Amino acid sequence: MDPRFRGDDVGRRKNRLGRHGHTMLGFIIRRTLLVVPTFLAIAFLTFVAIRLVPGDPIEVRTGERGISPERLAEFRHQLGLDQPVWKQFLDYLWQLAHGDFGTSISTHAPVLSEFATLFPATLELAFCAMVFAVVLGIPAGVIAATRRGTFLDYSLMGVALTGFSMPIFWWGLLLILFFSVNLDLTPVSGRIDLLYYFEPVTGFMLIDSLLSDQDGAFLSAVSHLILPTIVLGTIPLATIARMTRSAMLEVLGEDYVRTARAKGLSPFRVVGIHALRNALIPVVTVIGLQVGALMAGAVLTEYIFSWPGIGTWLIESIQRRDYPVLQGGVLLISGIVIVINILVDLLYGVLNPRIRHAR
Amino acid sequence: MALLEISDLTVEFKTGGGQFRAVDSVSLSVDKSEILAIVGESGSGKSVAMLAVMGLLPWTATVTAKTLAFDGRDLLSLTPRERRRLIGKDIAMIFQEPMSSLNPCFTVGYQIGESLKVHLGLDKAARKQRSLELLASVGIPDPERRLTAFPHQLSGGMSQRVMIAIALACRPKLIIADEPTTALDVTIQAQILELLVSLQKETGTGLVLITHDMGVVAETAERVSVHYAGQKIEEQPVRELFADPHHPYTAALLAALPERAKGRRLPSIPGVVPGQFDRPPACLFEPRCHFATERCREKAPPRQGAIAGLALCHYPLTHGRPVGHPHPEGREIAA
């Protein structure tokens, strides 16, 4: 080759290739270590907050009738509630350090096993809501961005803003009123019709109903999922649509989009591949952040639709002042949110080659 | 028949302040295997004219022309689909900013292979084979490894080589290079220019080189078209242009080259290119021109004949002297 045409930077860039293997591992370790203080803070906050609410588990259970002071003291002693709060907290941490999340005061079942039974219901609902939000939100944002300033753009973004501003419980009741009460199209509550009964295999109703081989079970499960999915998915849907639109607008003005068009590529390739791939990077971050919001929303949504998941379980635990359930439940949910956020950060690296190599 | 034939091309943009004319009745032609340089300051409409040829202007632009033909085909009457079949294949464009012109999310191999797939329908193995050939021909060492590299792993010079490889992928008949060296280090500029010219010679494509660098023009072009505020003000073969510029603007540009400067201070052209709201009524260069008279302020200048370099001027220069000027001895060229 003519030496004049030789590359200008052969050696300099060499060591930047193929180095991400162990830094990826380092990243995971760093993020995992950062989880410990977060967990301590969450444990502390829930522990203190629930004790700030008037009434302890025993008073709530005995109700207005009351109970003799001696019995009250005896029960409190059994549950360790007569100890100073700081001592109770340290004992709780010691328990946690041994992997013991305690037992429910009202059901006497271990918190962890109750969580494991109920969590699939919440996961199923949250997953469907997220799929609903992503599948509709990303195309809506892309369409709004490519039709910027048109009637279509304004209507899509208007709907998104409305959805974003909607109080979850009100929206849920509105949908129930319209689709379940007036039109009689969907069931009001629960996960499946009482007609069907089968032993849970995976805990996911959609899968279990298919496995059960009972006619109509699957359709019943689907129809029970529709409204809760819409209610829970609305805010993430609106957020994703708006984020996708603004990310797309930014990307569509980039030089490489002009390059793609100069190659004579179809509008679908230019927008759907060259632009969207870049616009997805901030959108994925937003999706990750929505997971936390989704868990919070699930609490309300489950309560409205009597969905037997973690949300309903936690709200009931507050009403019963079931300290171990609330503390353990919140910790476990937080742990799941944190793990999902770490996964999203890893996905971010997959989508964005600059991060993958630079870290 | 010229490869690219443009006559009376006008491009207007809708802006908040009304219509803005970025390109004003420009006529150009490029022959097969010819290098045409378009020279002008920023805002002279040189890039916009070529983007109009490619059909890459935003919707706010209105393109009109008496003729806009490539290889005998009328570009204005093409459907978007027909145009897409043409650009990237028969006409390719190289842009100013190589680093941001490559998509950061896709590998070099993907971005080269894409054109091959869309326009030529090559299969995966053939695409890889051709991509390797292309990378080697633009002087990228170790092409096999570069195929899987992402743009952020390349320097500016490397990126521009990749852009050139993409442009060459489908063996185009015409390449439009929009300031291909402006964003690069001075040391790399010469390499890239040399590469472009040698590839042009090798493949026999036409080349339109948009630049504001007279040095680049002198080294590479065969014919030069000088643009000012959206108008073509002069066009000559490169030797003749440097020897005897006919438009006062061209003369002033050449006088401002460091290697041509005579005095201790580098000569410059006073003032700036007129914008949307301060366009002079007649000759657009009049406010900055040493030879401007009352006539230049009142009457739009005529297009001179080929012997006066098609200059758009009332008093075209011949060997530095304005022809027909009331005081030809009165003032010297931008000294």
UniProtKB/TrEMBL annotation, chain B:
* Coiled-coil region(s): none
SUPFAM superfamilies registered for this protein in UniProt: P-loop containing nucleoside triphosphate hydrolases
What topology in the membrane does the UniProt record assign? Peripheral membrane protein
What are the protein's GO molecular function terms?
A: ATP binding
Location comes to:
Cell inner membrane
Q: Which residues form the ABC transporter domain?
A: 4-254
UniProt entry keywords in alphabetical sequence = ATP-binding, Cell membrane, Membrane, Nucleotide-binding, Transport
- Per its UniProt record, what SMART domains does this chain match? AAA (SM00382)
- Name the protein family: Belongs to the ABC transporter superfamily.
Tell me what this protein is called: Dipeptide transport system ATP-binding protein
Q: Which organism is it from?
A: Kaistia dalseonensis
